[in-house]
# Entry
Amino acid sequence: MSELAGTPVPGLTKLWTHDPLTAGRYRLVGRLGAGGQGVVYLGEDDAGDRVAVKMVNVDLSDPRARSQFVKEIAAARRVAPFCTAQVLFAEVDGERPYVVSEFIEGPTLHRHVREHGPVTGNALHRLAVGTVTALAAIHSAGVVHCDLKPDNVVLGKDGPRVIDFGIARALGVTETASSRIMGTTAYMAPERFRNDTIGPPCDVFAWAGTIAFAAGGRPPFGNDSLFAVMHRVLNDPPDLPALPSVLDELIRECLAKDPADRPDAERVLVRLLRQDATVTRPLRRESLLEFGNETAGAPTPNHPLPQVPPTAPQPTPTQPVVPAQARPAAQPAQAQPIAPAQARPTQPAHPPVPEPGVGADPGGALRRLRHEAVDAWGISTALFLGSAGAAAGYVASSAPGPAAAAGAAAFVVVYLVRLLVATALGARSDRG
# Structure
C-alpha cells in the first residue's frame, strides 16, 4: 500500500484537436478530466500559477438560466475554504461558459483506490473527517454539492479536498437518471430517483457512499447496470466493507433511505472528531470546521482511535463554548502510511445489524410477504402481463368484457405466483 500522495499532475492528458487553447487570461495546458457536466482543463497564467478551468455544458441564452447559474456560482464562491477547492470566478458572457477554481495537486480518490487499493486505518479516518468538514462548510453557505463522489475528492498534500461543489446545482439538476454517468448514479440518494426535494441530506448519503468506496474499493450499492443500482439504492441495505465500529454505524445512518433519518454534516463531523478525542465540548461552527480542517491535514498518531462510550452525550456544534484544553498548532502535513491490504480484518469490527427475514425471527416470513406485496417492480410486471392478457382476449373475442376478464385473470395469476416465488426464494436465501 502507498500513502495518500500522487504524481504532480495525475491524470493530465493532452488537449484534443478541438479543445480551446485559452480561457480568459489562462493558457490551457491539458485535460484533467471530463464528464456529463463538461471538461476540466489545467490552466496557467503568465506567472505560472495553476487553476482548474471547467468548460460547462450549459446554454445561458435563456435569461432565467443565466441568472440561476450566476446565483449558484456566487453562493459557491462564499464557501469557507475548509477542505475545499475554492471557486475563484466564472465567465458567463462568452460562447463557452466556464468556472475557474483553485487547482489542488494530487490524485482523485477514485484514481488512488483503483491504483493502490483501499484506504485504511487513520488515513481513512482523516479522509472521512476532511470530506465531511468540506460538506459542513458547503452546507453552511447554503450550497448543495449534488455530485459528491470519489472523482470529486482530490487527495492533496495538505489533506483531502472536495471539488466541483455547486457546479451541478448551477447547471440545474434537471437530468434524468438515465442521462447521468454510472459513477454518479452509484452515489445518488433514493430521493434523487423519486424526484423529491434535493438538499443537504443527498450530500450526506453521497459522502457515506464515497467513504465506503474508499474503504472497500466499490460503491455500497454496486456500479453495474443503471436500473440494478437504482433498485438497490431504493430497496436494499448497503453492502459495506470492514469498517471501524463507530464509522460503520455512522455510515449506515448516513445511508438511510429516508433523508430525515440521516444526520447532518455537522453532526457527522462532531461524532468523527469525538472518536479521536479532538472535541470534548460543544463548539461554535467556525471552531468545529477549523478542528476538522486540522485533523484532516495533520498526521495522527499511529494507534487505534479510542471508542466513544455509548452513553456519552453528543455535543451540539453550534453552541459557543471554549474547548477544554488548548490544542497544539497544526503540524506540517505528512502522508500517513496505509495498512497493507492483507492486514485488514476479514470481518467488520462492528457487525451490521441483520435485516429482518425468515431466518431472523418467527415473523420474518410475514414481513417478507408484506415487502414483496408492495414491490413496485413486481406490480409493474403483473400489470404489463395483465395488459397483454387483455389484449390477447380482445383479439380472440372482439368483446371488451371477456378481454377485461382475461386481463384481470392474468394480472392476479402473475401477481400471486411472483409473490409466492419471491417470498420462497427470499426464505431460502435467509436460511443459506
Observations:
- Residues 1-7, 173-183, 301-364, 426-432 have pLDDT under 50 and may be disordered.
